[in-house]
Amino acid sequence: MAVEGPHGPVRLKWHKLRTQLAEAPFKRSNLALGWQLGASLEVDILATADGRFAVLHDATLGPSTTGRGHVARTPIASMRGLFHLDADGKPDPDAPVLPLSELVAPLRMLPRAPSTNLQLDLKLLKGHALPDAAVADAAAAVAGLEDAIIVGSHHLDDARRLVAAIPGARLGYDPMLAVSRQRALCDPERLLRHIERRRSGVSLVYLRFDAIVAAESQGFPLAARLLDLGIETDAWTVNPGRNSIDTILRTLMEANVRQVTTDAPGEIFAAASS
């Protein structure tokens, strides 16, 4: 799914595989649908106690799933039978807590549209290094699907380790954690330099949408300058209900953002197309 912008198509990425804001994340049916439609898709992955990757966003199983406990202290087998919750707190049987390998396995039997890509958003828990076993687990999970894979993370060195283990996968970097720790990087020119020093192999940068809007308001074309370096920009996370959503979307598209992350791609498509 893409919106036609002034500089060409702007992809709409399905944040946590959502097609609607209120639905549970990581629904299997949405993954299958997006894979065949040519969508940009995203799942979050966390290493478990036994060095496997589970498709989860948070450091703890609760309150976003029917489980309890810290992910890093829980083996993958103990997550069997858990489900992600929707906005009303109801478990969704189409959104079980799964190992990465199990979630993506059906994709090998489905036709993939040429423009489809799947971002593995690597989450790391404070005080926990990325184990070699988890790197090997991810590589085995996506074997045969490598050219559809993008590995993105705040933690660039660990994302590089995953990409090295998945030949053909692309590398994405989210510098917003660095921005939160180094306030000087709120200056868009300094942020550009930060990214430029780390650009080797990076094809996509994930920036909070308000950081891009702020750069544009200061007269600094951050997304366009990144394109000059061969790096596309993904603006996260843009959802319905925000004030001035039409203005935000117009600014992002004029700024030469190439992808917008959203939990409601249909609604954002309609807003951006109006």
Strand content: 15-25%
Average pLDDT for all residues: 97
Would you tell me which CATH topology applies? TIM Barrel
CATH class: Alpha Beta
Give the spatial strand order of the biggest sheet: 2-3-7-8-9-10-11-12
Helix content: 25-40%
Please give the largest β-sheet: 8 strands, parallel, barrel
Rounded Rg: 18 Å
CATH architecture: Alpha-Beta Barrel
Oligomer: single chain
- Regions with pLDDT < 50 over 5+ consecutive residues? none
Number of helices: 10
Distance between the termini: 16 Å
CATH superfamily: Phosphatidylinositol (PI) phosphodiesterase
Q: Give the number of DSSP strands.
A: 12
Structural class of the secondary elements? alpha/beta
Please indicate the count of domains. Answer: 1
Query: How would the global form be characterised?
Result: globular
Order of helices and strands: EEHEEEEHEHEHEHHEHHEHEH
GO molecular function, one term: phosphoric diester hydrolase activity
Pfam families: GDPD (PF03009)
Keywords: Plasmid
InterPro entries: GP_PDE_dom, PLC-like_Pdiesterase_TIM-brl
